[in-house]
Amino acid sequence: MKLILTADVEHLGAPGDTVEVKDGYGRNYLLPRGLAIRATRGAEKQVEELRKARETRAARDLEAAKEGQKKLEELGTLTLAVRTGAGGKLFGSVSAADVADALKDATGLAVDRRNVELPSAHLKAVGKYSVAVQLHSQVSAKLNLQIQPAS
């Protein structure tokens, strides 16, 4: 049975792929769950249009990530002012979410906290740190994070 996948199916393919599967697998599993549609001429044309749109979107996302990388490189050092106690220890800690919020305030670049890689899970002292930010699967940027006491 020839089918066109509408969703990512493990060990079979990605959306838009045309696959040949056994009749029972297609009829009893893929089609009822909406994971695939029967391969017809109309469906193949529609899938080709979807594939072109996905490629265009992927190219646009890559360009946006490269622009974000330039913004982060221009920024150089990101400074966070945090309440501290004696000896430069922080009240609490600085997490990836705090860094993502500070990046949004400083550059206007919305970065998901899961894409911010800190040297450790939480930063608990004043100082300079190197932080990696994953903007796209192919684009990442490094920036310096300066944590200083709030005045």
Automatic annotation (TrEMBL):
<keyword id="KW-0699">rRNA-binding</keyword>
<keyword id="KW-0689">Ribosomal protein</keyword>
<dbReference type="GO" id="GO:0005840">
    <property type="term" value="C:ribosome"/>
</dbReference>
<dbReference type="GO" id="GO:1990904">
    <property type="term" value="C:ribonucleoprotein complex"/>
</dbReference>
<dbReference type="Pfam" id="PF01281">
    <property type="entry name" value="Ribosomal_L9_N"/>
</dbReference>
<protein>
    <recommendedName>
        <fullName>Large ribosomal subunit protein bL9</fullName>
    </recommendedName>
</protein>
<comment type="function">
    <text>Binds to the 23S rRNA.</text>
</comment>
<dbReference type="InterPro" id="IPR036791">
    <property type="entry name" value="Ribosomal_bL9_C_sf"/>
</dbReference>
<dbReference type="Pfam" id="PF03948">
    <property type="entry name" value="Ribosomal_L9_C"/>
</dbReference>
<feature type="domain" description="Ribosomal protein L9">
    <location>
        <begin position="13"/>
        <end position="40"/>
    </location>
</feature>
<dbReference type="GO" id="GO:0019843">
    <property type="term" value="F:rRNA binding"/>
</dbReference>
<dbReference type="GO" id="GO:0003735">
    <property type="term" value="F:structural constituent of ribosome"/>
</dbReference>
<dbReference type="InterPro" id="IPR036935">
    <property type="entry name" value="Ribosomal_bL9_N_sf"/>
</dbReference>
<keyword id="KW-0687">Ribonucleoprotein</keyword>
<dbReference type="InterPro" id="IPR020070">
    <property type="entry name" value="Ribosomal_bL9_N"/>
</dbReference>
<dbReference type="InterPro" id="IPR000244">
    <property type="entry name" value="Ribosomal_bL9"/>
</dbReference>
<dbReference type="InterPro" id="IPR020069">
    <property type="entry name" value="Ribosomal_bL9_C"/>
</dbReference>
<keyword id="KW-0694">RNA-binding</keyword>
<comment type="similarity">
    <text>Belongs to the bacterial ribosomal protein bL9 family.</text>
</comment>
<dbReference type="GO" id="GO:0006412">
    <property type="term" value="P:translation"/>
</dbReference>
<dbReference type="InterPro" id="IPR009027">
    <property type="entry name" value="Ribosomal_bL9/RNase_H1_N"/>
</dbReference>
<dbReference type="InterPro" id="IPR020594">
    <property type="entry name" value="Ribosomal_bL9_bac/chp"/>
</dbReference>
